[in-house]
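Consider the tokenized backbone below.
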């Protein structure tokens, strides 16, 4: 079955960097869009962070992370990475990897990885 497994979360000081990785397995993702979402507090809605089309490499970013975060994919390793620079306190959240056919809702989700930014 499809599995998305996130890694790379942790504790970092404000202004620092972290790199998240999502290992995707269980199917061919060539027609998929892969994304990163985050939930900043329990009970809060998951919000979109960034996405990339698996083959076309078209990317999209939330305004709050533009210029600081970069999403990329490694086709050979089947991973989707999120490079996060200039981290702010408000970037503290559980970050989720997701996948869905281009033009459709995301149907696959990972379990999430915690990112905590401290002052």
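A designed sequence for it:
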């Amino acid at each position: 079955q499809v599995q998305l497994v996130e890694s790379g979360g942790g504790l970092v000081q404000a202004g620092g960097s972290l790199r998240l990785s999502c290992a995707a397995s269980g199917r061919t993702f060539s027609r998929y869009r892969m994304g990163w979402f985050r939930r900043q507090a329990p009970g809060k809605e998951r919000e979109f962070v960034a996405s990339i089309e698996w083959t076309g490499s078209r990317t999209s970013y939330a305004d709050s992370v533009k210029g600081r975060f970069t999403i990329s994919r490694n086709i050979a390793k089947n991973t989707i990475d999120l490079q996060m620079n200039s981290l702010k306190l408000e970037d503290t959240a559980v970050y989720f990897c997701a996948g869905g056919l281009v033009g459709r809702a995301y149907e696959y989700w990972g379990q999430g990885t915690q990112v905590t930014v401290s002052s």
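The radius of gyration is 13 Å.
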